[in-house]
Amino acid sequence: MSFFGELYLRSTRPFLSPELTAKEVAYLDQAFSGLTLPGPVVDLGCGHGRHAAPLNASGALKGRVVGLELDPYSLSQRAPGFPAIRGDLRALPFQSGSLAGAYAWYSTLFAFSETEHRVILQEVARCLRPGGLLVFQTVPYERLSEQPGAAFQRTLPDGSLLEEESRFDPDTGMDHGRRRLTLPTGRVLSGVYTIRYYPLAELRQLLEATGLSTKWVHGSLEGEPLSSASTDLIVGAELRHG
Question: Parallel, antiparallel, or unpaired: how do β-strands 174-182 and 161-169 relate?
Fold first, then answer.
């Protein structure tokens, strides 16, 4: 079973409160408020559309958001109010220079191999117009280095039992995890994942190598600078002209 499918959606959705979603949507709305380029803005890995639906309904991106998602289960659970395309981050189904912007949340861009991460960013750069904006969120490398191991067990509101364990390797920047969800019916969903977390200096180099320049780095949804206490690493990157 693919980790980023029914297992992921069923096990993460209970933790995505309306309040958290509203804060993330507000951040993205502000981040794109100065975007003057024409063209759509793509939610890369839109899932069930908790960001895309409200952003497409009002604010700076009203009527401009297109969702991209590979998982058919997530698309079947999609919120109404925005168009979506089934597609792969590694081969974006958009014409070169056709997008004004793109965004991705929860390390979506970095759940592949090192080579594929470069390909994904090259694909984003290919599709963006010059001056186009990419915004993405991940977790600071330093935070995971301080807490490399994690394990928990929790009963979800619908009675499902969620169990997970993970181990971060600071030498490789790879976080390896295993998740198991036992539904009230007795059906079991399980899967493994690997996510790459980059130190900021390496991340900047990766962006530069794929034609993108870092515009800002924030350590929280409030726009605070990145620090040793930051829980988020949010980056705004722009496609370089020429």
Answer: antiparallel
Q: What is the DSSP string of 145-197?
A: HHS-EEEEEEE-TTS-EEEEEEEEETTTTEEEEEEEEE-TTS-EEEEEEEEE-
CATH of domain 6-140+198-239: 3.40.50.150
**Strands 128-138, 99-104: pairing kind:** parallel
pTM for this model (two decimals): 0.96
Q: How far apart are CA 81 and CA 155, in angstroms?
A: 32
State the average pLDDT over residues 45-61.
Answer: 97
Compute the distance between CA of residue 233 and CA of residue 217 in angstroms, rounded to an integer.
7
Q: Summarize pLDDT for 22-33 with one digit per residue, the tens.
A: 999 999 999 999
CATH 3.40.50.150 range(s) for the chain read 6-140+198-239
User: What CATH class has 142-195?
Assistant: mainly beta
Per-residue pLDDT tens digits for 67-83: 999 999 999 999 999 99
pLDDT category at 241 given cuts 50, 70, 90 is: confident
Amino acid at 1: M
Residue 139's nearest CA partner among 205, 203, 52 is: 203
